[in-house]
TrEMBL record:
Cellular component terms per the entry's GO annotation: plasma membrane
Protein name as it appears in the record: diguanylate cyclase
A GO biological-process term: negative regulation of bacterial-type flagellum-dependent cell motility
Transmembrane segments: 150-168
Pfam families tied to this protein: GGDEF
InterPro entries the UniProt entry points to: Diguanylate_Cyclase, GGDEF_dom, Nucleotide_cyclase, Rev_trsase/Diguanyl_cyclase
PROSITE patterns assigned: GGDEF
Top-level taxon in the UniProt lineage: Bacteria
Gene3D superfamilies, A to Z: 3.30.70.270
Keywords associated with the record: Membrane, Transmembrane, Transmembrane helix
EC number: 2.7.7.65
Catalytic activity as recorded in UniProt: 2 GTP = 3',3'-c-di-GMP + 2 diphosphate
Length: 349
């Protein structure tokens, strides 16, 4: 009788209950998709708030660009592109807007307007994902109510069914672990610059916090007359130059971690015990660039590609990093005001 009861349960489970349970559990992956679309939408709304805020235009554009890059990383999913018609165009709009913000050739209100369509698309994805999950839960709940009467007829069947659910639960846990790992990988990609493969502004901030109380050097690098280079050679060649410079900086400053902060601005973070060491690094970078001798057909001074470099030395801390960044940025700005193609380190950062 036990064998017969087991066979009945197996037939019942395989022909009726198991497919419905499997359909329910297979929908849990949609929760991750909904969370990612929600987070991406929030980032875009934060970007609108930054653009409409009362802070300086430069800071507002930089903050909005960072939010847009994070939203892009979360929304750039194959399932979104495959199942939602608005995803492809929205990602293209975000990519185009990011380029315009980095080049500073768009005003705040135009940028805010361009974000409405991607936000609407992400909201649609978010609601659709919630609807799918709700439908799966409703279907499963209705099916469970109908079959619960059958399952109560025999304690043996309930026991065996519990074993089956335990097996399904373990399998779902493994799926959840894989989904968590995939989400972590997506977040890691959101911390990288998609063009050059190096870190972005968020990665720089996290790396500074990971080196609490260590003496670090921060080097900011800006390509001189990059707009003229793009106008003369085209944006594809400009992208190639950005990748080449990222490689050059990495090879010249071997111990440094590199970041692209947007547009033609790079940053390098490295262990630096004193200002003299930081100055040596800056000199080393400029010498490496001169040896590489990248051509610049539109350089006003008839030179190859040149850089403006600013640096500061600081003790890593969440409170000190903004001041160190500001000091390095001021040093870079002074280089630009003195004619570019040079470097300067702030002594008292």
């Amino acid at each position: 009788m036990s064998f017969l009861a087991l066979m009945v349960l197996m037939v019942y489970e395989s022909r009726w209950v198991y497919p419905e349970i499997q359909a329910y559990f297979s929908q849990t992956g949609n929760l991750t998709g909904q969370q990612l679309s929600t987070r991406a939408r929030v980032f875009l709304q934060d970007a609108q708030a930054e653009l409409l805020g009362d802070q300086a235009e430069q800071d507002a554009l930089d903050a909005a660009l960072l939010d847009i890059e994070l939203a892009y990383g979360l929304a750039d999913m194959h399932i979104y592109r495959r199942e939602y018609a608005c995803a492809e165009s929205s990602l293209a709009d975000l990519d185009r807007l990011g380029v315009q913000l980095a080049a500073r050739n768009i005003d705040r209100f135009a940028a805010v307007s361009m974000l409405f369509a991607p936000i609407q698309c992400l909201t649609h994805i978010e609601m659709d994902q919630l609807d799918r999950r709700g439908a799966a839960i409703n279907d499963f709940s209705e099916s469970t109510r109908q079959h619960s009467q059958v399952l109560t007829y025999s304690s043996l069947l309930i026991f065996v069914m519990g074993l089956v659910f335990w097996w399904l639960h373990e399998r779902q846990l493994r799926r959840a672990d894989r989904a968590t790992q995939e989400t972590f990988e997506w977040m890691q990609r959101a911390m990288r610059d998609p063009l050059t493969g190096i870190g972005n502004r968020s990665a720089l901030h996290q790396d500074v916090l990971a080196k609490q109380h260590q003496t670090l050097g921060l080097i900011l690098v800006d390509i001189d007359f990059f707009k003229q280079y793009n106008d003369a050679c085209g944006h594809p060649q400009g992208d190639t130059l950005l990748r080449q410079l990222a490689t050059l900086i990495g090879e010249t400053l071997e111990e440094a971690k590199l970041y692209r902060l947007g547009g033609d601005e790079f940053a390098a973070l490295l262990d630096c015990p004193d200002v003299a060491t930081l100055k040596r690094y800056c000199h080393q970078l400029m010498e490496g660039l001169r040896e590489a001798d990248f051509p610049h057909p539109a350089h006003p001074d008839k030179k190859g590609v040149t850089l403006s470099v600013g640096g500061s030395c600081f003790v890593a801390d969440e409170a000190t990093f903004p001041y160190a960044y500001e000091a390095a940025d001021k040093a870079l700005y002074q280089v630009k005001t003195m004619g570019r193609d040079g470097w300067q380190v702030t002594e008292d950062a």
